[in-house]
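Can you give me the bound-state structure? Components:
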Amino acid sequence: MHLALITVFAVTEEIAKAGKSIGLGVGGGLGAVGAGVGIGIIFGKVIEAITRQPEMRDEITQIQWLGFALTEACFFYGLVAGLLAAFIV
Amino acid sequence: MSAVANPADPALGERGTGTGSGDGPAPSKWSTKRKLLVLLGVYIVGLIVIVALTGAHGTRNEAFKPQNEFKLETWVNLGVFSINKAVMYLVIAATLTCASMIYIARRMQDRPNRVQTAVEMLYQLMRDNIAGGNMSEKMLARWFPFIGTLFLFILFSNLIGYIPLPTSTDRAVDIAGFHLPAFSLYAATANLSIPLVLALVVFVSYTVEGVRAKGPIGYLKGLIPGGVTGAMAGAIFVLELISNFMRLMSLSIRLFANILAGHLIILFMAGALAVILGVAWLAWLTLPLGVLLFAFEVGLVAALQAFIFATLTAIYLGGAVADNH
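Here's the bound-state model for the whole set.
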């Protein structure tokens, strides 16, 4: 009886550990997917825009970095949520 | 990184001498391609040597916890105002911001030297691109000092975060007989409290500025985009109000998470991964990546995050007083 109870506790602990690992993996991984697609789109569009209107290069570059940083941050939102799940919750 | 303990040390030493012998005797007529090939050869040979010396498998190290790198040890206990390493970084950044800019402004010359040219370019970037593009002349005159200081302070905070300083007082190292706290990378902005306070200051400033320009009712009405009327306006108003508070979160978490993740990744690539898994050759394998990431963080992310924080502040301030969009 006691042994069975201990086994159950051990198993729940393992499951909790697995859940935390999944949380970190999904948070980091899916966050990276989304941000990667977004950053790709931004730089692709910037190349398009500059080839069309090379004279607007400076203005476009400034907006590009703004967009890059905003998109990149989305990856870190996912990562921070994953880290929270893995280490703190 | 103070985290690099015994298992990784042979790897680091190996690399230091390895690249030295690769570059040292190389005559200057060697082409870039040849140098790169030699470097790659040293890298691969070093990897094989380490695997041969220490074995491919290791035992997991449970003692080292990467999150302890970001733990704050209280140095001087003053209750809520206790001094720890984050406070030290804050003070250094604030002192550097004020001292360097005042020093340069005092000795401005007609024929600028290199430092003055760089600071003038920085000033122009702050005035024309960050602040000027997003607010009117009148607002610019009033708020440019604030935005400029914010930019410089975050920039200095981020940059000194990449200099290893002896701040880990929970561990010690002996260097040439001196008993020093272990060196570690930390930044004031890698702690959520500091970006949050900065974001709060920004939030209060643009709300006050908006209320002063339009009155409390006018400011709240101004949240609704122009052209929306009827029942729709109510729903949009609630959404806009929520998104207004979400700015507080996004502004602070963006800066905090960028710097924290940068530091974590440098920590892992520079040896923590090898220390945790107890595998020496992993440190050798990941070190070039660590160096690359370090350069990326110092060269781009540190300045970009300061730029984005200041630009968004300018956009929020300009948007708060602008007529309905």
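A couple of observations. Residues 2-52 of chain A form the longest helix (51 residues). Helices of chain A lie at 2-52, 57-88.
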